Amino acid sequence: MNDQIIEALQAQFGEEGVYGLGESHGILQVTTAVENIVPMIHFLYAHPVFKFQFLTDLAGIHFPDAKGQELGVIYHLHSLENNVRLWIKAYAPIEEPNFPTITGLFATANWMEREAFDFYGIIFEGHPNLTRILNMDEMDYHPMRKEYPLEDATRHDKIDELFGR
Amino acid sequence: MEVSNIWYFLSGLTLLSALMVVLAKNPIHSVLYLVFTFFCISGHYVLLNAQFLMAVNIIVYAGAIMVLFLFVIMMFDLRKNQPESKSNLTKLAGSVVAGSLLVVLIALVRQNNFQTPQADGFVSQTGMVENLGKVLYSEYLLPFELVSILFFVAMVGAVLLGKREAGERNF
Amino acid sequence: MNLLDSVFIAKASFIGVIFLITLGVAAYSTYFERKIAAFMQDRIGPDRAGPFGILQPLADAVKMFMKEDFIPANSNKWLFIMGPCLSMLTALMTSAVVPFGDTLTLGGVTFDLQGIDVNIGILWVFGIVSLGVYGILIGGWASNNKYSLLGAIRAASQNISYELAMGLSIIAILMMTGSLSTKAIVEAQQNGHWNILYQPMGFIIFLICAFAECNRTPFDLPECETELIGGYHTEYSSMKLGFYLFAEYINMFISGAVMATLYFGGYDYPGVDFVTAQLGATAATLIGMGALIGKALAFVFIFMWVRWTLPRFRYDQLMGLGWSGLIPLAMFNVVVTGLGVLLNQQILVGIGGVVVFIAGIVVYDQLFVKKKLA
Amino acid sequence: MKLSNRTKVVEQGEMTLAERMYLPAIVGGMATTLKHFFSKPVTIRYPEQQRYLGPIYRGHHILKKDEQGAERCTACGLCAVACPAEAISMVAEERKKGEEKLYREEKYAKVYEINMLRCIFCGLCEEACPKEAIFLRHDQMVPVFNSRDEVIYGKDKLVEKMDQRYLREGWK
Amino acid sequence: MSNSTISVAEAPPGIEGAGFFATSLDNLVGLARANSLWPLPFATSCCGIEFMSTMASHYDIGRFGAERLSFSARQADVLMVMGTISKKMAPVVKQVYLQMAEPRWVLSVGACACSGGIFDTYSVLQGIDRIIPVDVYVPGCPPRPEQILDGFMQIQELAKKESTRRRNEPEYKALLASYGIE
Amino acid sequence: MSEIALVNNPNVGLDKTQKGGPYVNELSTLNLGPTHPATHGIFQNILTMDGETIVDAEQTVGYIHRAFEKIAERRPFYQITTLTDRMNYCSAPINNMGWHMTVEKLLGIEVPKRAQYMRVIMMELARLTDHIVCNSILAVDTGALTGFLYVYQWREFIYEIYEEMCGARLTTNMGRFGGMERDFTPVAIEKIQKLLKELPAALKEFEGMVMRNRIFMDRTQNVGGISAERALNYGFTGPNLRAAGVDYDVRAMNPYSSYEDFEFDVPVGTKGDTYDRFLVREEEMWQSLRIIQQAMDNLPEGSYHADAPHYYLPKKQDVYHNMEALIYHFKIVMGEIDAPVGEVYHSVEGGNGELGFHLVSDGGRTPYRLKFRRPGFIYYQAFPEMIKGTTLSDAIVTMSSMNVIAGELDT
User: Fold this and answer.
1) F32 to chain C: which residues are within 8 Å by CB?
2) What's the rounded Cα separation, in Å, for the pair F2 and B148?
3) Does E121 touch chain A (CB under 8 A)?
4) F133 pLDDT exceeds 50?
5) Do the Cβ atoms of D1 and A80 come within 8 Å?
6) SS3 for C100?
7) Cβ pair A133:F230 closer than 8 A
8) CATH assignment of the domain containing A60
9) Is pLDDT at C192 greater than 80 in this prediction?
10) CB contacts < 8 A (A, E)
C-alpha cells in the first residue's frame, strides 16, 4: 500500500514535491512543502482507493538547529478502510511560521491547530478562531519551543545543584 | 375587636396595596403588591362569611394567575432592560383614558341607588358552597354554561397560539 | 368569657403541640433521610454526632445558626429575606385543617384535634399549596443569579401544572364524600372504608402530584444539584437556607398527613372499637393520632425511598407527564367515580375503572403504536 | 462502517407497554434499593477499622538500617535522580573512622530530606535504590499537615528506629 | 449496627448534673460545626476520583455528617481543593473561596494542590497556599481515602477548638490581608 | 463567536428589524462551569440560551493544563510513566501500558507472552473501572445516585487488585519497559477470579436500575446524538464513535499485546445518542469480562518480563552482588539507556478511544518530542454541535456520557 501511495503522490505532485520518504513500523512518512499540504490532504481524502478520511493527530514540532525549517507540523492521517496510517510533514521558518488550515476538511483540526499555535506559535491561515487553547490568553510566549524553560520560577524547596539538574 | 374596625383596616390595606401596584417601579414588586391586594379582598370575603369565594380567590388569582404573571415577568426580566421612558403623548393619552373612566364610574354610582344590607335579614349561609352550587346550577345555569364554553374556546385559542412549529420545544 | 378562654387555651396548646411535632419530624426527617440513603447505598450514614448520630440535626441547626448570614450584592434584600420565610409559613399553615384525631377530653377540657374545622378544608390545603411556590419564586428571583432564577421558574411552572391534576384527583373524593371539610372526609372513611379502596387511581395521581409539589425526586428539577447547582437556594446560606430545607421536609410530612387523611382513613385504624372498649375513648383517640402520624411518616419513607431510587425527569418530559398524562387520567377518574356514585357500587366501579383503563391502553397499544412501529 | 468482523450491534429496543408506563423499572429499582436497605453495609469505619493495604502498598518512606543498626544509604543519589517530582535532596559525606557502626558504606547521607507534599508515591526511588535503603512502607501512611513548615521530612523522621523495625511480608 | 468500637463525638466538658448541663457556647458551637461540615469539592483531577471513593460506600464520608455536598459556595463550610490548580484556574479558586460564608476552612488534598507535585511547570500554581490560606494539607498523589478522612478529621479538630470570635480577631484579618483578601 | 459577542455586549443592540432569525429577543447567557458540579470542576461552557433551550455554546478548556508534553521533553523515559498515570486517571494502567509499548517499539524489545497476557488483564480491568465510572456518573447526572454506589464498590475491588500488583490505587505506575515489575501473586489471582464471578451480578443490578427505566431512557434517547459522518470528521474514537455505528477499535484493527488471541465483540450503536453511548460502554464491560476470563484461563507460563538487561532493571540481589547488574542498574536509573534515533507511533484502545503516543527520539535520555493523542481532547470539541437545540439538562447528560476526563483533555 505504502508504495502505491508514494507513486500516486509523486504522480500528482512531482518527484520534487514529495521528499523525506521514510517508514517507521509500517507507517509511511512524507515531507512536502507548506503550499502542498492542503492539495495533498485533499487528494488523499478524495482518492477512491486510499480514502484518508480520518485525521488522527496533528502535532507541532520545533527544531531550533534546522535553519529556515525550525517549526514543523506533522499531520497524522489514517485510512480506516485500508487501515493504513500516513505522516505528512511540512516545515516553515520560525520568523514566518505560516501554515494553511485544514479545518475546512476536518472539523477536528480546529483544536489541534489551536493547540499547535498555543504551544509553538504556528499560525494557521484561515483558521476560524486561532486563539490560545490550553494556556492563559495573557501568556506572551509559546512554551513548547525549545528555548523556554519548563520550571515555574516560584519553587523554592529543591536544591538545583543536585546531580546535574 | 369590632367587625367594622377590621373592615376599615382591611379596606385601608387594600387601597394602599392597590395603589402600590400602580406606583411601584419594579414590575415584580407590583405583582407582589397585587397578590397582597387579593389577600385583602379574600379577607373581605371572609368578613362576608363567603369562605368558598375566599378560597377560590386565593387558589385561582393568588395561587395560579399571579404566579404565571410573576413567571412571565421574570422570564422577560432576564436581560434587565431599563424601562423606556414614556413620551408625553402616551402620558396624556393615559390620563385622558383614566379620567374618562373615573367620570363614567362616578356617574354610575350617582345614578344607581344601592340597597343597604339589612342586618336582621342577612342569611349567613348565602356564601357557602352548597348555596352557591344550587344557585349556579339552577337560576344561573345558562350563563354558567355559556361562560364555560367561552373559557373553553379561549383555552383552545391559547393552545393554538402558543403552539409553535412542529419539532420545536414549547417551553 | 371563661369558656372562651378555655377553648382558646385548648386550641393554642393543640396548635403548639402540632407545631412542635411538625418541626421535630422535619428536623429528624433530615437525619432519617441521611440514614435511609446510607442504608440503601450500603453505607452507614452519620454516626459520630451522638450515639448513632442522632444529634446530627442539632449539629446542623447550630452550625447554620452560627454561620455568616450572607445577602448577595445586587440582590433585592427584602425579597431575599422574604423568600424562605414565605416558604416556611406556607409549609406550616397547611397543617391547620388536617384532622389529627377525634375530640379529646382531658381534665374536663375538650380538645378538638384539628386546627380549624372549616367547611372548605380541602380547598384551604389546596390554596396554601398553590401559594407555596411564592417562597421559591421570590427567593430564586431575588438572588440575582441565573441558576436560582431557572430553578424558580421551573418550580413555578411545575407547581401550577401539577396542581391541576391534583385538584382533579381530589374532586373524585369530594364527589364521594359530598363535603369539602377534611373532618367530614375522614369521618366518612371510618371503620375501614378507606378511600384507597375506592380511589386507587386517584391516589396514584395524588401521590405523583405530591412528589411534584414537594419538589422531590423524580421531580426535583427546581433544585437539582447536577444541573442548577442548588437551584433556587444557590445563593442562600446560614439559617435562610435552613428554612428552605426545613420547609421541604415539613411539606413532605404534611403532604403525607393529607394523603393519609384523604385516602387512608385519617386517624382511623383497625380495631378502634376494641381499643375504645378496653382502654377508653381518650386512649383510642391518642392512638388514632399516633396512627395518623405513623401513616404520614410511612409516606415520608416512601418519599425518601423513591428519591434514592429513581432518576429525575427532564423539564419537558415532566410537563408532558403532567399535562398529557395525569390530567386526562384524572378526568377519566372523575368520570368513573361519577359512574360509581350513580350506580352506588363504588368499589366495583373503582376497580373496574382501573381495569378498563389498562385494557384501553393495551388495545390502543396493539392497534396504533405497534402499527406505527411496524 | 464495518471495519472488523467482530461487530456486535447493541439495539436500543423499543419500550414495551409496561416499560412505557414506568412500572417495571420503578418496581424493580425500588426492590433493589430495599434489598440493599436490609443488607449489611460494606463501610470500613476508618479511624477505628483499618483497611488492608496490600503487601506492597506505597506509603510512608523509610530509610532502612541493616541488622547491625547501620544505615544502608550510601548517598549515591539515584533516588533523587529517579524522582519525577524532584522531592528528594541529600548531602553526602564521607564516613569517618569509628562510624562503621552507624553507616554501612563509606559514604553516607548527612542530610536526607523528602518533601512530603511534593512526593507522588510512585515508588521509583525504591526501585532505583541499589542498596535497598529507601522503602515505601506498606503499613503506614503519611500523616496530614497543618502548616507548610512541617512537610520536609529529614533523617530524624525517615530513618528506621531499631525498636520498631519495618519488615515486609515476602521480603526479597 | 451497634458497634462498640465506634468513638462517638465526645460531649464537651461541662458540669453535668440532674437536668443541668453547662458548657461554654464556644465548645458547643465548635462541636456542632465539627459534626456538620459540608464540603465543597473543588475536584479537578485524580484526587477528585479518590474523593468519590471517600464518598462511596467503602469509606462513607457521611459518617462525619458531611455527605451533603454543597456545590454552591455560600452553603459550604470546607473547601476541599483536590487536584492540580493551574494558573488559569487560580482566580476561580480564589473566587470560590471569597464567595464562601464564614466560618470556612480549606483542605488541600493531594500533592498538586498542596505544592504542585510533579508539575513544576510554567502553567501550574505551586500550591494553593499562594492564593488562599490553607488549614490542612493532605499529602499523596492521590492520597488514599483514609488520608482524605484524616485531613477531614483534622479540620474537625480545628473547628472544635476554634473560638466563635476568631473570625473577627485582628490575627485572622491579618492572615486574610496577607492574601489580599479584605 | 461573533453572534455571542453581540448578545453579551450591552452596547451592541440586536438588529431589531431582523425577524424570525435565530436570535429572537429573550436570549440569555449562562455560564456553565468551571465550578459547576456537572462539569467536574474543569470545563467552562458559556451557553447562549433561549429559555432552557441552548442556542449556542462556547467552550473554554485548559483549566488544568499541566504541560505534560513539555515535562516529557525533560524527563527520562521511565519517569514519563508517572505522567501517563495522570492523563486518563480513570484508567491509568492502559496509559502506562500504552507508553511502555511505545518505548518497546522504539527499543525493539520483544515482550514474552505471559507479560502480554498480564498486560491485557490489567488493561481490561482498567477499562472496567473507566466505564463503571462513566456510566454510573451518567446515572448520577440524571439523578440516580444509588446505582453509582453499588457499582463503585466493585471499582474499589479492582483497586485492591491494582494494589496487589503495584501498590497504588489510582495512579498506578504499573509495569516497566519489557514487561511487568512483578508476577501475579496468588492473592491477585484469587481476587481477579472473585471479580469475574461476582461483578456480573452487580452489573446486572445496576443495569436493572437504569437501563430499561423509562425516565432514564427518555433522558438519554435522541439526546446529544452525532452522526457517524460527523463523528469521523470530528476525530471521534472509542465508545463514542462506536455508538455512532463505526466499529473502529484499535484492539481489533491493530492488535497489540496479543489481543488477536482473544474472542471479543466490538459493540456498535445505531444512533450515536447518549443512550447508545451508555449501551456501548455497558456492553464493553461485558466484553472486558470475557477477555479477562480468557486471559486468566490461558495465562501462559514463563517469565513476566523480557530478557533485556539493558532496559529492564535487574533484581536487587544481583545489583548488590553482580558488577554488570550494578552498571545496568545505574544506567537505567540515570536514564542513559541507548535509545535509537527514530520516530514511532503506538496507539492503544484507551477508555475513551485511541490513545496514541507519537514519540520522536534523537537518541538522548529524554524524548525529543512526545505528542499524546488524547481522545478526550479531540472529541470534546464536538460538544457545542451536539448540544445545540437541546436543553440544559440534555447538555449535562451529554457531557457525562462523552466521558471527558480533564486530565486527558488538558494534559
Assistant:
1) none
2) 51
3) yes
4) yes
5) yes
6) coil
7) no
8) 3.30.460.80
9) no
10) 28
**ipTM score of complex:** 0.85
**Within a domain: B21:** yes
D chain contacts of residue E140, beta-carbon cutoff 8 Å:
121, 141-142
CATH number of the domain that B41 lies in?
1.20.120.1200
Helical (H) or strand (E) element with C56: helix C56-66
First-to-last alpha carbon distance for chain E, in angstroms, is 48
Name the residue among F66, F169, F171 with its Cβ closest to that of E84. Answer: F66
Say how far apart CA D153 and CA C242 lie, in whole Å. 44
C-alpha to C-alpha distance for D83 and D73, rounded to whole angstroms:
16
For residue F135, what is its C-alpha cell?
A: 456510566
Q: Can you read off the three cell numbers belonging to residue F218?
A: 427518555
Grid cell listed for F121: 488483564
pLDDT digits (tens, 9 = 90+) for C135-181: 888 888 888 777 888 888 888 888 888 888 888 888 888 888 888 88
Q: Set out the domains of chain D in order of their start, with CATH numbers.
A: 61-163 (3.30.70.3270)
A76: contact with F, CB 8 A cutoff: yes
Mark the binding-site residues of E for [4Fe-4S] cluster, compressed into ranges.
46-47, 112, 141
The verdict on B132 and B63 lying in the same domain is: no
User: What whole-number distance in Å separates Cα of residue C289 and Cα of residue C11?
Assistant: 16
In a domain, F373, yes or no: yes
User: What number is the average pLDDT over the span C358-367?
Assistant: 79
Q: Name which of C139, C133, C138 is nearest C159 in CA terms.
A: C133
Q: State how far residue F389 is from chain C, nearest Cα, in angstroms.
A: 13
Helix (H) or strand (E) holding A11: helix A2-13
Specify the number of domains making up chain A.
1
Instruction: Give the domain extent around F89.
Output: 68-307+337-410
Identify residue C15 by its one-letter amino acid code.
I
Taking contacts as CB-CB distances below 8 angstroms, the residues of chain A near E130 are 154
Same-domain pairing of F104 and F154: yes
Q: What share of chain E is helix, strand, coil (3-state, %, to 5)?
A: 40, 15, 45
Question: Can you give the residue range of the structural domain that contains B75?
Answer: 1-79
Region for residue E180 given its phi and psi (left: phi exceeds 0; alpha: psi -120 to 50; beta: otherwise): left
Domains belonging to chain E, first-starting first, are 39-174 (3.40.50.12280)
Our CA angle for F164, D137, D102, nearest 5°, is 145
Q: Is the pLDDT of residue E119 over 80?
A: yes
**Residue E85 contacts residue E119 (beta carbons within 8 Å):** no
Judge whether D12 is closer than 8 Å to chain C, CB to CB.
no
Who's near D120: CB < 8 A, 6+ residues apart? D84, D85, D87, E111, E117, E118, E141, F82, F171
Please answer yes or no on whether D119 and E111 come within 8 Å at the CB atom: yes
Q: Do B169 and F26 touch (CB under 8 A)?
A: no
Binding region of D for [4Fe-4S] cluster: 73, 76, 79, 83, 119, 122, 125, 129
Query: Are residues F22 and F152 part of one domain?
Result: no
Chain D hits for E150, CB-CB cut-off 8 Å, are 141, 143-144
Return the biggest CA–CA distance within chain A: 60
Helices H / strands E in chain C, number of each: 16, 2
Query: C200-213 and C238-263 helices cross at what angle (nearest 10)?
Result: 170
